[in-house]
Amino acid sequence: MLIACPYCGPRDLSEFTYQGDANRTRPHPMSNDQSAWNAYVYDRVNTAGDHREFWQHSGGCRAHLAVVRSTLTHEIKSVAIARESMNREAAK
Predict the structure, then answer these.
(1) Domain 2-22+48-91 adopts which CATH fold?
(2) Are 58 and 15 in contact (CB under 8 A)?
């Protein structure tokens, strides 16, 4: 599987580290809401189809990326810099 890093171009999956689900909303760091933290840490949705994920180009430029990948075919649909992607999501 190839991931097209915006800085380095297409690279093999072995250069990247999976960083987690990009669809979950993290509670505020100062929050004492135990149920919100439990849901954030333990609840997972097993999506069949397109899924947003965070990856880091750990074997290259070290950029954090937001990747949309099909969980059925492993086809990479889109890749963006994570910070820019999160800013766009927050603006919606």
Answers:
(1) Folate-binding fold (3.30.2270)
(2) yes
In sequence order, what are the residues at sequence separation of 6 or more whose Cβ sits closer than 8 angstroms to the Cβ of residue 8? 57, 60, 61
Beta carbons of 20 and 52 less than 8 angstroms apart? no
Separation of alpha carbons 83 and 12, rounded Å:
22
User: Residues 6 or more apart from 17 whose CB is under 8 A from it?
Assistant: 55, 56, 58
Residue with tokens 């990009």: 22
Tell me which of 20 and 90 has the higher pLDDT: 20
Indicate the domain borders of the chain: 2-22+48-91
What one-letter code names the amino acid at 38?
N
Question: For the whole model, what pTM was predicted?
Answer: 0.81
